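Incident log, support desk, overnight shift.

02:14 A customer reports that sequence design results differ from what the structure should imply. Their input is reproduced verbatim below. On-call engineer (initials T.W.) acknowledged and began investigating.
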């Protein structure tokens, strides 16, 4: 895509924006630009609307605010937030904690792209506030909260932050392998199976850390009945398939494996996946390792979601802009099938289909069966993906 095409695409996207999108953009710009020089807590609160301030009072469980005008509401918050902020520090994961540590030493705030999209959550908890300094968006700590955070920071807080971070990583790792977990019973069992954590022992702190992290990630979802990975598009189906196999134990993982799998871009580079990526690099002329890595992750996600193999072939063509040669299709189908059978399955409770004798991952929507490389497929012959369509009307297009 050249520069002209990029500009045309941006213009088209701008035209498609709804009035609500524009309203949100204006509101966001107003909040970021309200503070030009970071200062005290009163200044930070003055940049917010009364409704936004009321949201803070609710999070901090401050009462008797309903009849106050904005000025008096700010007076109340300035007085009480500094006294009540400490419990929220104990729920932080390390990336929020480290950003606050940096903000302690930066008078003009810190630029933190990974946290900037969550500026509303940050100011709602009175952790960091948005500002625009010299044309750059920054997150800063008001002077009063710098003193509160300095006093709270120490070995005990750092130990709790490390615990919070590991708890969240373990949950994300479990969801990478299992897809969805019933709560709290199955969650308790899996924590004991895979880690040395006791759900009952950690109790409220564990749940608080998960709820808090959810404010700063879209990597998992947490409901009263279940937890699920961001990759799962049908939680009920995954849980139902797991329930069909009461005699199949959940696969065990080490703490290290779970933490490694907690990265949102993680996928296992199995021999089968490496072979597929090598074939993709050759057949689709992909030389950029970063693009190839992205393709590997997408293929893993499609595999876990039981996406039809024909759909994966369409994805590869869309992603690379290169249609596969007809003589290469059988090889790709064979290697995609190998990846499917060697990828830990949500429905099989983290086991790989080729590890579990007589089992398959539910009723895959792709009707995957072992394919063997065969002769060149004719345009009018049935497509080898099993769709029932002619090849020219299916994977060849």
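02:41 Re-run completed on a clean worker. Output:
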């Amino acid at each position: 895509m050249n520069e002209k095409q990029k500009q045309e695409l941006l213009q088209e996207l701008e035209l498609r924006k709804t009035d609500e999108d524009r309203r949100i953009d204006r509101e966001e710009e107003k909040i970021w630009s309200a503070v030009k020089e970071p200062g005290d807590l009163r200044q930070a609160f003055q940049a917010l609307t009364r409704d936004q301030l009321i949201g803070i009072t609710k999070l901090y469980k401050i009462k008797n605010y309903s009849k106050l005008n904005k000025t008096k509401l700010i007076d109340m918050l300035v007085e009480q937030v500094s006294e009540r902020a400490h419990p929220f520090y104990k729920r932080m994961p390390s990336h929020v904690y480290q950003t606050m540590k940096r903000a302690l030493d930066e008078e003009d705030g810190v630029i933190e792209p990974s946290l900037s999209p969550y500026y509303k959550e940050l100011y709602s908890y009175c952790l960091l506030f948005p500002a625009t300094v010299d044309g750059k968006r920054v997150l800063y700590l008001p002077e009063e909260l710098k003193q509160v955070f300095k006093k709270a920071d120490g070995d005990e807080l750092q130990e709790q932050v490390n615990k919070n971070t590991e708890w969240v990583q373990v949950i994300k790792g479990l969801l990478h392998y299992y897809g969805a977990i019933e709560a709290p019973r199955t969650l308790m069992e899996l924590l004991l199976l895979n880690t040395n954590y006791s759900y009952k022992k950690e109790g409220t702190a564990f749940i608080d850390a998960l709820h808090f992290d959810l404010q700063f990630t879209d990597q998992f979802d947490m409901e009263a009945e279940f937890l699920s990975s961001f990759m799962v598009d049908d939680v009920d189906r995954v849980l139902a398939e797991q329930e069909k196999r009461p005699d199949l134990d959940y696969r065990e993982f080490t703490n290290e494996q779970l933490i490694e799998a907690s990265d949102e871009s993680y996928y296992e580079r199995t021999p089968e996946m490496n072979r597929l990526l090598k074939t993709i690099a050759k057949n689709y002329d992909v030389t950029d390792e970063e693009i190839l890595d992205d393709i590997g992750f997408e293929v893993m996600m499609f595999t876990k979601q039981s996406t039809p193999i024909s759909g994966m072939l369409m994805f590869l063509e869309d992603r690379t802009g290169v249609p596969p040669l007809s003589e290469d299709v059988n090889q790709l189908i064979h290697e995609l099938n190998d990846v499917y059978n060697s990828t830990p399955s949500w429905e099989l409770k983290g086991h790989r289909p080729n590890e579990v004798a007589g089992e398959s991952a539910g009723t895959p929507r792709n009707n995957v069966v072992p394919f063997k490389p065969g002769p060149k497929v004719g345009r009018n012959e049935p497509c080898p993906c099993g769709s029932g369509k002619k090849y020219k009307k299916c994977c060849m297009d």
